[in-house]
């Protein structure tokens, strides 16, 4: 029997999904081992093997593909643990990483320090050279000075060098020359060139991406080496892939060459998961909001018309990383979010969190302030005896005490109402996050289906959906390991790009066609290297285009990989007008369209996954008991039926009010909502 | 206070609805902002985000969220008030009114403000407002600031609260006048449509909101929300000591009457028992023959926003909290209500920057731990309006404001200055232009853009430095319309902190020599020449001798300050081993003691 394994290493848990050729799919969770994510990963595989009645070695030996989502890069940036990196920049522009782009998250909050540059000024050295906006050489590279600059960085013991010059995207000759000098003076030292890492204009984004990329190279090289070595040692002989920021998977060699693409690896696969479950459930239109709610954070992403939109505005720890990534919006809202009442009588939750240590008061680990989880205990939504698969007993009285003191008494309301207010406030923060990601794209969330994963999502999903007028929520069978499931089912994918400046009224056929041909060859070679068969290969060409005079580009899908004549250009222009009109409601029919970049996405399609069908239930489902729970519109209801998820079968219908208990989550079906177990064991809830 | 015991019986409004509606209003304003940002054509809109959206109820009570520029949103109610006063019962659904007149409640003529009434069941219940800084307003020279304008007749097109749409259709007489007066009429019309998209989006969403929750519930929410904001504001003021302070500061001047600078005086009085803070500006100079006169809108907004800035970020900036900030101003004063035909085109910048900083500084002087030093004043040479013909595109005309090196945030009690501050009117919200985008849009070369060493005012916390920036012309001449200040009077420090470095603007000639330029006016830079700008730094907070020596060393190693500033201003003594500097703690303490005594 051959297996495929997908792993998502998170901060607290390592999630794993394993699939066999026979159609068996199983998910497990295992604690992440801090400082050494590989032990946690192997533990997770061992746990899965045990569940299949096999040994670790047997599973590893039969594993054909191991897809890995890792926070290695994300955490290195978040914790400031990237390699000591030097930056070579254009004379006069030493402060690109300090200046950034302006703007401030919260205008009114003055209690913040201005963020420092990713690479300090003392490791930033200016080079005598200058290219202009048209690619002309204003000042040739001064080689003697460049050598001195590189020497200076080497003397300061840098472990990597980032090279980011103004207008290197218009003419890369100086960056190329600096690369040659680095190779000559410090053979083997990792370096990154900005026109290669992120071939797009705006010096801050490109420099930041290059700085991150260079600083990650030593770390990612080491991590990949350790991972492949350890997997081999456990008997793995298959193909290892890593999940990138765009949610696809690619080879370790590609990631080592451009480790920046490892940012957000893991969470980037969540929308893929939402898409797969929606497909399984035959949702029409393919418009999906995927949410993932855990203890400290709430992630939102969208799929529109079965497409997963990517953007280039990705930011990690305040640093722009510039390369295309799946847009996942994260806010600080989760079970651990702390609740407080302000002087005017409004309740606030988060972004401060009690985390998992000390955690909510009901954990009994020293948490002394009211949290959202405490409020859910008071509402009666969580079973204190079976929390987290029974690994923990919750102290309901502690939850009541802190909630009474922190919320009910200051407001002069009953404790049930206080708990509800805390949860409604938290729900509203999550609603706000969903609106932000949808409104920004001109999307109406009412046309979307919500796929909810994460330990806390089942408690809040229906309430959030109702607020947004979303009619259906799917809580998948694999809700607890949402991203890992997305990793298992994600496509092989890599992106290649070129800067090309041209405009529709003076179209440079030669340059465009030459670059398209090169990109095509590069993409084909990649897919061949990844072992993707011909009929599963897919190339998507796009241009970064805009009306002349605009400063922001749109990503325009190209219908051709070769522009033969003026007719092809006219078709491209018309496509741009349509795209602009769709997004902004206006077209400027008389305006010239400029292209500044051409990209290709090389995709190796993964076959549709089929889950084994769940056994059909006979007759009505039977509750395992009843509990008293509070609902905003209905008030407190005694003896709300409680169902055990493991006992429910396909076709079973659970009408609200009801509580469904799963090992790692609980699903609240409020009065008026109806949950149906689908043939694949997913919950489909009409809100 | 919003509690269940609240006895407001006019409508039933539970706490849940309050939570939900608060979020709904935030979402509506966010959606208005998004509509404007996405469709704006000029750089000040789609890059710098120099615009704001807000709304009021029929009684002009404002609601805003932390998305707009403080100077834009702090007195937005004056706009619908002008509409009501002028059009009264003639206001109809489908109307839209335009206003850029400081004599009709607008900020300054560069801000193009649209306002639409929102009707429910034939009754006017809300106004939606969008205000955007346009790249051009038909001035004699291509700028929208004009600090040297003598009176309104030098300030281009005036739109004194006019109906620009009726029945959701353009009143073409008005749009045609705009097109005929404003440079690059296509860009103007595109930006107008962007503003229109914002207010119409707000109108639609407010109607949906009233449809879903009921008009009375929504209006009841707004009333309670104002009470909430007022309570929050009062509670914060009650924690402050009863106190009062009056100080005068000066602003650069070339006027014969004010060769020692233009005085600006403000009296700040905190009355914790009454839960009020008073700002008295009546003791100020008469209107000047310059565009820097403030407007009623910018005086009010600057006072309200900078007072509330000291009270906490969680207090909603709306009518309820504004009620507790009492501002007294005089008609005919440069720091007050302008008297026709005084020019006000620079009412959101120059003196406005000084007034906003001054209010924060008065707090700092009254209560250690609050307020800030003075931030950047005027526009640095690097944030000029640039214009000319572009040799790369057959001489195509261009006009654009570059927002570059608009830095110099003031030091605060617990933090160093915010670098990309963009003045007290924006407080960090403005986006800074990208070097590459600027070079692509204009035929200029940005030779340098970096922080000025020793540019920030020294102090326990240090002001942010200004920018050193050099713009070289390429193959054709480029005009820079300058609006600088803080040359004679740089941004001051507070509580013993030092002033930031003063502004410098000069021209580098072909032979490499530099000549100083006046702070304001147009300058043409020929090929081979360059504009050299040193922007002002923010002032410091507290004595430099109290600054953590480790931070001083870090600033030195990072090139923010020189060795001499480390030693002579900060009194830090270094000791070196293996070429690595470390702080000599005992020697530093001794030196600081000596300096403190001197």
From TrEMBL, chain B:
GO terms for biological process: glutathione metabolic process. Signal peptide: none annotated. This is Hydantoinase B/oxoprolinase family protein. GO terms for molecular function: 5-oxoprolinase (ATP-hydrolyzing) activity. GO terms for cellular component: cytosol. Residues 14-544 form the Hydantoinase B/oxoprolinase domain. It comes from Borborobacter arsenicus. InterPro entries: Hydantoinase_B, Oxoprolinase-like.
């Amino acid at each position: 029997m051959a297996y495929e394994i997908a792993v998502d290493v998170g901060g607290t848990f390592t999630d794993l999904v394993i699939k066999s050729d026979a159609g068996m799919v199983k998910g497990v969770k295992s604690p992440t081992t801090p400082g050494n994510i590989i032990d946690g990963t192997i533990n997770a595989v061992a746990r899965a093997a045990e569940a299949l009645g096999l040994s670790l070695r047997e599973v590893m030996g039969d594993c054909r593909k191991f897809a890995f989502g890792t926070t290695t890069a994300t955490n290195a940036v978040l914790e400031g643990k990237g390699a000591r990196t030097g930056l070579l920049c254009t004379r006069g522009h030493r402060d690109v990483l300090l200046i950034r782009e302006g703007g401030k998250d919260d205008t009114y909050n003055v209690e913040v320090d201005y963020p420092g540059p990713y690479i300090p000024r003392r490791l930033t050295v200016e080079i005598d050279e200058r290219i202009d906006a048209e690619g002309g050489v204003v000042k040739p590279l001064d080689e003697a000075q460049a050598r001195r600059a590189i020497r200076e960085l080497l003397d300061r013991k840098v472990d990597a060098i980032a090279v980011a010059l103004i207008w290197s995207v218009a003419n890369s000759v100086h960056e190329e020359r600096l690369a040659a000098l680095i190779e000559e003076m410090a053979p083997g030292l990792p370096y990154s060139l900005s026109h290669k890492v992120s071939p797009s204009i705006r010096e801050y984004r490109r420099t930041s991406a290059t700085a991150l990329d260079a600083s990650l190279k030593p770390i990612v090289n080491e991590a990949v080496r350790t991972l492949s070595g350890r997997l081999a040692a456990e008997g793995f002989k298959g193909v290892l892939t890593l999940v990138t920021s765009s949610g696809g998977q690619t080879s370790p060699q590609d990631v080592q060459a451009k480790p920046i693409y490892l940012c957000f690896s893991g969470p980037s696969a969540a929308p893929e998961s939402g898409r797969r479950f929606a497909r399984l459930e035959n949702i029409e239109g393919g418009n999906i909001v995927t949410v993932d709610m855990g203890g400290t954070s709430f992630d939102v992403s969208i799929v529109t018309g079965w497409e997963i939109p990517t953007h280039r505005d990705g930011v990690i720890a305040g640093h722009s990383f510039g390369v295309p990534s799946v847009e996942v919006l994260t806010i600080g809202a989760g079970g651990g979010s702390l609740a407080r009442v302000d002087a005017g009588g409004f309740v606030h939750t988060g972004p401060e969190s009690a985390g998992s240590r000390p955690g909510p008061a009901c954990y009994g680990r020293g948490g002394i302030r009211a949290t959202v989880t405490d409020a859910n205990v008071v509402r009666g939504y969580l079973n204190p005896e079976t929390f987290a698969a029974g690994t923990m007993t919750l102290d309901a009285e502690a939850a009541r005490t802190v909630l009474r003191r922190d919320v009910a008494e200051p407001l002069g309301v009953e404790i049930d109402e206080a708990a509800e207010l805390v949860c409604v406030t938290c729900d509203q923060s999550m609603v706000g996050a969903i609106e932000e990601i949808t409104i920004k794209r001109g999307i109406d969330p009412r046309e979307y289906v919500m796929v909810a994963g994460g330990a806390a999502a089942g408690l809040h999903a229906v309430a959030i959906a109702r607020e947004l007028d979303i009619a259906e929520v799917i809580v998948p069978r694999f809700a607890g390991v949402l991203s890992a499931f997305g990793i298992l089912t994600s496509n092989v994918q890599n992106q290649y790009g070129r800067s090309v400046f041209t405009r529709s009224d003076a179209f440079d056929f030669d340059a465009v066609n030459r670059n398209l041909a090169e990109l095509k060859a590069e993409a084909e070679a990649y897919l061949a290297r990844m072992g993707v068969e011909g009929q599963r290969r897919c190339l998507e060409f796009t241009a970064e285009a805009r009306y002349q005079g605009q400063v922001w580009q749109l990503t325009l899908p190209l219908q051709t990989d070769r522009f033969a004549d003026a007719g092809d250009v006219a078709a491209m222009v018309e496509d741009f007008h349509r795209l602009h009109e769709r997004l902004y409601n206006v077209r400027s029919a008389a305006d010239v369209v400029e292209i500044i970049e051409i990209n290709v996405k090389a995709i190796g399609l993964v076959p549709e996954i089929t889950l084994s069908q769940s056994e059909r239930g006979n007759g009505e489902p039977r509750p395992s008991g009843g509990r008293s729970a509070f609902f905003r519109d209905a008030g407190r209801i005694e003896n709300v039926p409680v169902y055990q998820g493991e006992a429910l079968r396909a076709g079973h219908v659970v009408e609200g009010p009801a509580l469904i208990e799963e090992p790692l989550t609980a699903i609240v079906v409020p009065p008026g909502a109806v949950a149906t177990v689908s043939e694949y064991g997913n919950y489909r809830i009409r809100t | 206070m919003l509690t269940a015991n609240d006895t407001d019986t006019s409508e039933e409004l539970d706490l849940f609805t309050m939570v939900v509606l608060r979020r709904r209003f935030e979402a509506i304003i966010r959606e208005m902002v998004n509509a404007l940002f996405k469709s704006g054509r000029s750089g000040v809109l789609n890059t710098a985000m120099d615009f704001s959206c807000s709304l009021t109820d029929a009684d002009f009570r404002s609601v805003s969220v932390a998305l707009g520029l403080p100077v834009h949103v702090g007195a937005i109610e004056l706009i619908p008030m002008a509409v009501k006063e002028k059009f009264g019962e003639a206001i109809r659904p489908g109307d839209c009114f335009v206003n850029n007149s400081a004599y009709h409640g607008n900020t300054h003529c560069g801000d193009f403000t649209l306002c639409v009434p929102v009707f429910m069941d034939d009754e006017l219940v809300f106004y939606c407002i969008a205000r955007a800084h346009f790249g051009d307003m038909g001035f004699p020279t291509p700028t929208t600031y004009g600090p040297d304008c003598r009176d309104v007749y030098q300030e281009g097109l005036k739109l004194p609260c006019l109906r620009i749409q009726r029945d959701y259709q353009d009143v073409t007489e008005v749009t045609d006048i705009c097109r005929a007066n404003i440079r690059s009429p296509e860009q103007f019309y595109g930006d107008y449509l962007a503003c229109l998209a914002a207010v119409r989006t707000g109108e639609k969403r407010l109607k949906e909101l009233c449809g879903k929750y009921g008009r009375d519930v929504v209006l009841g929410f707004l009333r309670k929300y104002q009470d909430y904001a007022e309570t929050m504001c009062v509670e914060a003021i009650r924690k402050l000591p009863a106190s009062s302070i009056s100080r005068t500061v000066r602003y650069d001047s070339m006027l014969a009457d004010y060769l020692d600078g233009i005085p600006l005086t403000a009296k700040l009085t905190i009355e914790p028992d009454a839960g009020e803070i008073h700002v008295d500006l009546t003791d100020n100079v008469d209107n000047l023959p310059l565009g820097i006169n403030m407007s009623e809108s910018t005086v009010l907004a600057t006072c309200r926003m900078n007072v509330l800035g000291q009270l906490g970020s969680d207090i909603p900036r709306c009518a309820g909290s504004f009620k507790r900030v009492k501002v007294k101003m005089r008609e005919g004063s440069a720091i007050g209500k302008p008297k026709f035909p005084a020019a006000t085109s620079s009412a959101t910048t120059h003196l406005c920057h000084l007034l906003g900083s001054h209010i924060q500084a008065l707090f700092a002087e009254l209560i250690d731990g609050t307020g800030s030093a003075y931030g950047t004043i005027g526009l640095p040479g690097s944030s000029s309006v640039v214009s000319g013909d572009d040799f790369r595109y057959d001489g195509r005309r261009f006009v654009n404001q570059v927002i570059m090196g608009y830095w110099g945030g003031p030091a605060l009690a617990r933090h160093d200055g915010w670098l990309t501050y963009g003045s007290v009117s924006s407080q960090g919200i403005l986006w800074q232009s990208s070097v590459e985008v600027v070079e692509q849009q204009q035929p200029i070369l940005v030779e340098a853009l970096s922080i000025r060493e020793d540019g920030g005012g020294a102090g326990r916390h240090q002001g942010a430095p200004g920018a050193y920036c050099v713009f070289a012309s390429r193959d054709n001449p480029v005009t820079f319309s300058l609006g600088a200040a803080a040359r004679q009077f740089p941004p001051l420090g507070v509580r013993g902190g030092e002033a930031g470095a003063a502004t410098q603007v000069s021209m580098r000639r072909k032979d490499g020599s530099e000549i100083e330029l006046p702070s304001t006016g147009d300058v043409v830079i020929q090929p081979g020449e360059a504009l050299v700008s040193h922007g002002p730094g923010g002032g410091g907070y507290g004595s430099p001798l109290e600054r953590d020596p480790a931070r001083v060393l870090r600033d030195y190693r990072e090139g923010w300050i020189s060795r001499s500033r480390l030693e002579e201003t900060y009194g830090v003594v270094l000791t070196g081993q293996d070429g690595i500097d470390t702080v000599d703690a005992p020697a530093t303490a001794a030196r600081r003691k000596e300096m403190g005594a001197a």
